[in-house]
Amino acid sequence: MKYLLFFFLSFIPSLIFGQIETNNNSITAKTSFNGRHCRGTHGLCSFDDTARTIDTNSTITYNEVGNTIIIEVNRSRINSNEHFQILREDPQNYIENTQIYYLMEDDFMIPNSISQQLHIFRQDVKINSGMYPLIMTENTITITFNLE
Asked: Potential cystine with 125: which of 14, 63, 80, 110 (Cβ 3.0-4.6 Å)?
């Protein structure tokens, strides 16, 4: 009986910790960094979650705990012009893993269809204009946006 009790009690931590959820929700999309209304300024232009897989260039993740959206751009899926739109300079001028900032000149409303897929259950989710941390590695560019 003592061994049976020990056996069952040894599973309690895995049951408790197995229930912890990260609260992260992700989708893949074609993200454009061509500015508000796609007019060529610095900032987000659009998220296209209906793009074919071969055309997607980013993973968008919602972190409920921090109320942030993290966009991880696959550098091999964007051209030199898109690199410039994100970094505002030639990517060769940057040292990998150095934190810099991404300029959002205008507010950006996240489409409701994207918000729903990310399990953000409210309407009119907005990224305010401002400077946001950006980290570039050999394979990715990661930008973390605070949500309003």
From this structure: 110
